[in-house]
Design a protein that fits this description.
The chain has nine helices and seven strands. The chain is mainly alpha-helical. 13% of the residues are buried.
Length: 260
């Protein structure tokens, strides 16, 4: 726990995984074109294999391994196909053994490789914590966008009605629904433009400002977020109507004067 990376879920997950994969007894393995003895505390693997086993991207696996090597946690020998990883001071990370040589709390596989169930549980816990962190970061990002649009709505409400908006949980839920609808519109625009990149919060803000600035007068004066949300599709159609009419008028002129 004295390592700076201990609080980083992916670092911890990979480190525990390495300890779990390392041989408890000496074994033979084909490495660098010859049959070699893989000693206690060593194992043969690859960057992509570690990525598949831990869910960490291959590039990040490589970076983390370099950190472990620089801190003398591991040693590595690599070739074009795989790598031999050695856990430095491997015995310090193992529990005391019973007289018959079997580690405490371990179960043996058919190959003689011990599987520490406690370590497996720790791997699961680390992965679970990582998923929680990712979800938390994702939620924090959504809350940030939600706060920006909430503040903008409160300003619009004050200008339209002349009093402060009485913001409640219902308004928050309604705003969240509007954000989802605007995100869907932005995604449709991406597909129309053959844009494969994900929709950003900045794009949602642009759609929000355009939508609110183009609100028909009745909706703008009413300043009721629930009504705007319930009539969203009708409002979008009404906003687009002048654009369609203008387009039809231009097409009519082209046709009348036989312009191409």
């Amino acid at each position: 726990m004295d390592k700076g990376w201990y609080s980083k879920p992916e670092f911890l997950a990979l480190w525990v995984h390495i300890l779990m994969k390392a041989n408890h007894n000496e074994r033979e393995f084909w490495f660098n074109g010859q049959n070699v003895k893989v000693k206690r505390g060593q194992f043969v693997t690859g960057r992509n294999k570690l990525s598949q086993e831990t869910g960490i991207s291959p590039s990040k696996v490589e970076r983390i391994l370099k950190v472990f090597k620089s801190e003398q946690q591991i040693e590595q020998q690599t070739n074009n196909h795989n790598r031999l990883i050695t856990v430095v001071c491997y015995d310090q990370f193992q529990k005391s053994e019973q007289p018959n040589g079997q580690p405490l709390d371990n179960h043996w596989t058919a190959s003689g490789q011990p599987v520490d169930t406690n370590k497996k549980e720790r791997i699961k816990e680390v992965k679970k914590e990582r998923r929680k962190k990712e979800e938390k970061e994702k939620t924090a990002k959504q809350v940030s966008l939600h706060s920006i649009l909430k503040e903008d709505w409160e300003k619009r409400y004050l200008e339209a009605v002349g009093i402060q908006c009485d913001w409640r949980a219902a308004e928050g839920a309604t705003l969240k629904q509007l954000i989802t609808k605007l995100r869907h519109l932005a995604k449709q625009q991406h597909e129309k433009d053959n844009n494969t990149s994900p929709v950003t919060d900045e794009e949602i803000q642009i759609f929000w400002n355009y939508f609110m600035n183009k609100l028909p007068e009745w909706y703008a004066d009413k300043a009721d977020l629930k009504i705007i949300n319930s009539k969203f599709n009708a409002i979008i159609a009404e906003i687009k109507r002048p654009e369609r009419q203008a387009k039809q008028a231009v097409e009519g002129l082209y046709e009348a004067f036989d312009l191409k």
